[in-house]
Amino acid sequence: MESKSNIHQKYYVPEQSSIPIIFAFAALLVGFGAANAITGNGTIMLWVGMIAVVGTLAFWWSIITKESQAGLDTPQLNNSYVYGMAWFIFSEVMFFFAFFGALFYIRNIAIPWLGGEGPTAKGLAGELLWPDFEPTWPPMITPEQSLLGENAVTKGPAENMYLHSIRDLGTWLPLWNTIVLLSSSATVHVAHLALKENNRKRFNFWLGITVALAFIFVILQAVEYYEAYAHLGLTLNSGVYGTTFFMLTGFHGMHVLIGGIFLLTQLMRSANYNHFTDKEHFGFEAASWYWHFVDVVWVCLFFFVYIL
Amino acid sequence: MSAVIEKHDHHHGPQKGVLRWLFTTNHKDIGTLYLWFSFLMFLTGGAMAMGIRAELFEPGLQLMDPIRYNQLVTMHGLIMIFGGVMPAFVGLANWLIPMQVGAPDMALPRMNNLSFWLLPAAFTILLSTAFMEGGMPGFGWTFYAPLSTNYPNIAYFVFAIHIMGISSIMGSINVIVTIMNMRAPGMTLMKMPLFVWSWLITAYLLIAVMPVLAGAVTMLLMDAYFGTSFFDAAGGGDPVLFQHIFWFFGHPEVYIMILPAFGITSHIISTFSRKPLFGHSSMVYAMVSIAVLSFVVWAHHMFTVGMPLAAELFFMWATMVIAIPTGVKVFNWVATIFKGSITYETPMLFAIAFVVLFTIGGFSGLMLAITPADFQYHDTYFVVAHFHYVLVPGAVFSIMAAVYYWLPKWTGNMYDEKMGKLHFWLSFIGVNVTFFPQHFVGLAGMPRRYADYALQFAEWNAVSSVGAFLFGLSQLLFLYIVVKAVFAGKKATAQVWDGARGLEWTVDSPAPYHTFEIPPKVKG
Amino acid sequence: MKKEIGLFLVFLFSVNLNADWLDVNMPLGVTDISVKVFGIHMLMFWIMVAIGAVVFGVLFYAMWRYRRSNHKNAAQFEENHKLEIAWTIVPTILLVLMALPASSLLKEMYDHEAEEGGIDIQVIGWQWKWQYKYLDERVGSKPLSFFSNLTTPQEQYEFNQATKTENYLLEVDEELVVPINTPIRFLITSNDVIHSWYMSDFAVKQDAIPGFINVAKTTINKPGIYRGNCTELCGERHAYMPIVVRAVTEEEYQNWLQDHRETAAQLAFLTEREWSQDELFAQGKEVYQTRCAACHQVNGQGIPGFYPALAGSDVVMNDKFKQIEILMEGIRGSQMQSFAEQLNEVEMAAVITFTKLSWDNNKMGSSEIVIPKDIVDYKNVDT
Ligand code: HEA
Ligand code: HEA
Ligand code: CUA
Ligand SMILES: [Cu+2]
């Protein structure tokens, strides 16, 4: 077996490595720490874990980058990364699928049943248990509120996030967010084209714009949340409307943040270290796929959470 | 870590000492870790099952209060599924897939190591609840809301599941990438061994449903601690929504626990019949159909939650359809045996027991699929009998068959055949004595998850407990046989079994630390 | 080892020959639907047996006939399209044969409409008891309603301190009484977590989902006492919330209704009476043991992490109004449920008094007792 010579035709199998197990330990700290924090048992472990996770991940990726720069990546290994990234995004799609599924179920099944619609058995719920609940979307009062009024614990919002009149279009944040995110998808594409032409300056410029747009989006969303909590009475506690609204947009927002950091990393690699060539730039491509995915999720959100 | 870059060009054998295991990137080491971990979990979950059966030996509360009983049942289910069966199959995948497709290792070896080490992390969190006020989860492995949202310590459970999920997803990505990208030249998809095929499909199922489970536990966490109302009618949600999401994960999950078993059984039956499998491609199509169908049958676990008639009918029919591809598989195995030249070594015994007993479990599954009858069966011991028939003499037997079958390849030593047969017969008798009577008490109306029961069920429960102790004790024999074969035993040849086919039988036994550094050529 | 187990099994069977260990199948039940369900169950069973006989028959034959010592050289064939088509088509046909009757029976079971002359009973699952509300019968302004609690004494199930009686775990204080030959709609829901109302003899099993209603319609053909269980894991005492239904003739049913209305009327009278501390304590003790001890334990210590101790509880010792409120309203989002409908004013006052005077609570806090009038006052202020 020793005689096999040309290493670069071989698949690169890394030597033993201590990072994975350290990362697993960090994950243990984060998981345990998060549970501690939520149940009121202190947050120290969570912070230590978070720092450890970020640290090991950064270290891990720096190694991968080094290996790639050292030319260890055979086309076959690159292919593995491509497949890996694609399937990872698929798993993310399924995660959002669960939340969209919940939204559809609640809107089209649970709320009507609670309001007394649907087949005999289901309609009886409205009649016997929630006589005054009106099945509308978004529900501005919760079933509990329809029964107990002011004594209810879970109350609907004072206002919802839909566009109320066409005159408000200009100040309607979701629209701006859509514009921001859609144009960022375009700019990341332009950056990609520039990279393929080996025009690093243009690439850096357009990627920079994309990253900026990503953070603008996050800021706008923060403003929107502030509005919701401070002025509209729309919170996580305002029944299913608040629940689905914040969980869907919240998880999406988190993904925007992650995607933004992912893109920013690629920008720094290119600007500071001149990584990537017109042929070899999977790190960037992966980030841009992720970005497009985040974008598509937003378009679905925009339709199902803000318009329909 | 620049060392990585400098000394990449000479591979040597394994490092010495414990660091080999902690830092390994070798698929065989990782496979071994997975297998031992799962065995440990099997013993833990099994010990809990013994607790359950001891409590149920007679009516009344003898050994524990009902809280503890519910906790045992819950943890038994969780540990057996997420700690026992799934990691065992991942371990087998690690050992076998690279060897069977002619690859040097898994595609992403460091991530592979991470996938494994996340599991002990997850189970540490899950089991640590045993030492907290409020104790372990006690809401059933299905953790239906709102029972679970009001339960103490649920946050620990949620994050444990998250970490297990990440581990499974990464493991599956690795499997898929290895299969799609690392096959030796000439190994076309249709030529792939069935175990590899079964895992390709399983991995796809895992990537599709583990994130959904993550979504379900996240919603649960939000409902429990942050005031959302996904599963609370008072706020406009619906507890049944939880069940839909859970079973959208849950049903594919049960096929995740049986598809690799189908792959294993196909290899073993063909080997010991000394015949090629009757229909390789029809087996592949059958597995693909089962996987696709598994996404549209989830609500057969929820026939009694009060779904509208149309939904009940749809899920009944869709579920019944699964019997057709599964039947194709069973008939294929029988046809493979037909006109073979059969010997009955331990792996073959387990494989045949698998075919028979899994089919019995499938039959009761089909009965459960009949909605009007399920109104009687649901949440009784008839269901418990069904799923233990498909899981214990199904999934677990197939894992044992696989271990006996490939152990000589892994260790270079033959296991003790006499002891193996003894282990088989004790297990075979034990498993049937344990779970067959559960059909009876179930039909007579004994509900599951009961710490205590009416007098009319006493006799069969006692029988079942006796069977369970027999089955449990015989697993110690398994441990003994495996350990013995690791350290000593008749040396195995490369071929090991004279009827075996496939790349893994072309390399030495034990298989060299790095198998195919240069891909083998696969001929037509 | 094996011999011991064998002997043990023989022992088990022989001591129990008189019991119903031969009871290995689904009961036929006492409704038209349950008989049909039984029929479809047996149909399925025999089809499975038949398929099993064929598949296993061929398998065992092949295993025996083609063993190595008998068949040296394996035939090397693969695939046979005719055979494969056959083993796809035949099961399909069998499945259709099963699906057709199953579907039409299901449709029949899904008839949820109210019927002329039928009665509606709302069934509400609580941790861990059932409440029944006869929606068509009134007591005062409210529907006739009562709770059905397990009566098997604790000594019978905890460590088997007492011998178990015949209906061990299947006996309740108030049975659900219904007339035979009358279509009854059970409108099933829950107050807390999911339960499931399971009466094997009627082939009824419907989950009780908090906030939603499920319907099961049944017409009982035979008078008798039928026993069932909760079949959805609902926490600690899931195994201890049985269902007992007494099906009687129409006439007996009317009498029973009459009795029930009268008892309700008498209760109002009891409230007005003067109650001494000892009387209240004695009655409170009984109420505590049947209604509260499941969670807060007989010794008042609760279970750490699940149920708070009442012994030494600040609320119990010092906050009379708060305790009445907790018992009347329950604590939202916890397992502490409202007892407003479960206990009458006397029982309510009695149990509070009991908790205030027990476990040294009276030594540490105020030993002020609560009388039925306090409860009445609370109710009047509230509405
Ligand atoms: C490995 C795991 C596994 C497997 C493979 C299966 C396989 C099947 N299961 Fe099972 N099931 C579980 C694990 C599994 N199940 C678990 C864990 C639960 C309980 C979960 C819980 O509540 O905790 C459960 C519960 C469960 C229920 C819910 C019961 C209830 O709660 O009321 C139902 C209902 O339809 C069901 C049906 C089926 C069917 C139709 C199959 C089919 O795939 C079986 C197909 C196989 C055959 C039919 C035999 C071979 C075929 C032939 C020989 C061909 C000819 C046959 C005919 C034409 C009939 N299962
Ligand atoms: C792969 C999954 C798997 C496996 C392998 C098993 C294996 C076993 N199971 Fe389990 N079981 C489940 C999955 C599984 N189970 C699930 C999902 C549930 C539902 C949970 C829920 O309702 O939420 C369940 C529920 C369940 C119940 C129902 C409890 C209830 O509803 O109240 C029972 C009762 O008999 C039971 C028994 C057993 C027994 C006796 C074994 C035996 O096969 C175990 C044998 C193994 C060993 C015993 C370990 C090895 C030996 C030793 C450690 C040595 C020590 C031995 C002795 C002291 C004798 N299981
Ligand atoms: Cu109520 Cu189980
Ligand atoms: Cu299923």
Radius of gyration of chain C equals 28 Å
Q: How many helical stretches of chain A?
A: 9
Structural class given helices, strands, pairing of chain C? alpha+beta
**CATH class assignment of the largest domain in chain C:** Mainly Beta
Q: Which homologous superfamily in CATH is the superfamily of the largest domain in chain C?
A: Cupredoxins -  blue copper proteins
Helical content band of chain C: 40-55%
Strand content of chain A: under 5%
Distance between the termini of chain C: 71 Å
Provide mean pLDDT of chain C, rounded. Answer: 85
SS summary, helix count of chain C: 11
Draw up the topology in text.
The complex is a heterotrimer of chains A (308), B (524) and C (383).
Chain A lengths: L18 H20 L5 H26 L5 H40 L5 H9 L14 H6 L24 H24 L3 H33 L6 H35 L8 H26 L1
Helix pairs in contact in A: 1-2, 3-8, 3-9, 6-7, 6-9, 7-8, 8-9
Chain B lengths: L1 H5 L12 H5 L3 H29 L10 H36 L7 H20 L25 H28 L12 H32 L13 H18 L2 H15 L6 H14 L15 H13 L1 H15 L8 H24 L1 H7 L3 H31 L5 H27 L14 H30 L37
Helix pairs in contact in B: 3-4, 3-5, 3-17, 4-6, 4-15, 5-6, 6-7, 7-8, 7-9, 7-10, 9-12, 9-13, 9-15, 10-12, 13-15, 13-16, 15-16, 15-17, 16-17
Chain C lengths: L1 H14 L16 H34 L15 H29 L9 E8 L2 E11 L2 E7 L5 H4 L18 E4 L3 E8 L4 E5 L4 E5 L5 E6 L4 E7 L12 E6 L1 H23 L4 H20 L17 H5 L1 H10 L15 H13 L3 H4 L7 H11 L1
Parallel strand pairs in C: 1-5, 4-10
Antiparallel strand pairs in C: 1-2, 2-3, 5-8, 6-7, 6-9, 9-10
Helix pairs in contact in C: 2-3, 6-9, 9-11
Bound molecules: heme-A (2 copies), dinuclear copper ion and copper (II) ion.
Notes on the structure:
Chain A is mainly alpha-helical and 308 residues long. Chain A has helices at 19-38, 44-69, 75-114, 120-128, 143-148, 173-196, 200-232, 239-273, 282-307. The model of chain A is unreliable at 1-8 (pLDDT under 50). Chain B has one domain: Up-down Bundle (Cytochrome C Oxidase, Chain A), CATH 1.20.210. Chain B has helices at residues 2-6, 19-23, 27-55, 66-101, 109-128, 154-181, 194-225, 239-256, 259-273, 280-293, 309-321, 323-337, 346-369, 371-377, 381-411, 417-443, 458-487. Chain B is globular, with a radius of gyration of 23 Å. Chain C is an alpha+beta fold and 383 residues long. Classes of the chains: A mainly alpha (308), B mainly alpha (524), C alpha+beta (383). Chains in contact: A-B, A-C, B-C. The structure holds heme-A (2 copies), dinuclear copper ion and copper (II) ion. Dinuclear copper ion binds next to loops of chain C.
